[in-house]
Amino acid sequence: PAPLAGGAAADADVFRALAVAGTQCHAALHTELWGDVLVWGSTHRTRNAAECCAACQAHQHAAARGGLDKGANSTACNAWVFCPDAKRCGARHRECWLKHQASAVPPKEQPEGASAWTSGVLLQGDAWLQPYERLNTLTLQFELGPVAVELLPKLAPASVREIRRLAALVAGERCGGCRIYRPEPHFLVQGVMGDPGGYVATPRHPNPPQQKMMQRGLVCWAGGMGGPDFFVNLIDQSGFGDDHLCWGLIANMTLMDQIVVLPTKPKAKPNDMTFLAHELNFNLTLS
């Protein structure tokens, strides 16, 4: 499941804030997770599900600092259970149970009515990204339509890893910093890809040798850097040499060819860069 999936609508912004700060709550509605109880919800209430998730992480940190019953060897929270609905939960409304599971995995959201509870897990490090490692199609979702980018991990492994992380983080929702801003006919379309808290920046070196002939449709980081600005190559060309790190390939360039002829801002000088009159925002999905 997506790292931001689940949770009441009122919690969505808080879940997102936790996620970009590094806490993946893996929340699922209508779900009650089992496990060894560490903190009893009957005496531990939070204002919302996101705060319950944050309490689970705070419990982890306290255990790591040696602040619990068994010091650094204390069992730490990795699963949380919250009762959000006042009517269905009754006296248990806003109870937040902190638990430990021997093998915690992100829960699957259950049908409405299956349970009054909302639950989630906290995985260590980048374990939450494992389901995304086999996904190699990044789709840029424009209002004009989708653009499918085949990821090229053999050419830019670190960049592909970071792009998967960003796409997983925004989980198909609005990517706050993803936009196309520059069209240069017979040359390139340029944009930027990032989100507040979800920064994409990878070292230019070391990486495998790049293709000397840059084919039409290659997607590469701009300016010889490692992101977040990127460009889509519109023609086969060899002028870039090995200066740009390329991480994707677009097979169907129809929409890019449409973007390059959209209205642009006036130029002060003929050789100035070309900028769109209206930038194009896009979202990210992985498949």
Automatic annotation (TrEMBL):
Q: Which residues form the Apple domain?
A: 31-59, 74-99
Q: Which residues form the PPIase cyclophilin-type domain?
A: 139-272
UniProt GO molecular function = peptidyl-prolyl cis-trans isomerase activity
The record's listing under Pfam families reads:
PAN_4 (PF14295), Pro_isomerase (PF00160)
Q: What is this protein called?
A: Uncharacterized protein
Organism expressing this protein natively? Tetrabaena socialis
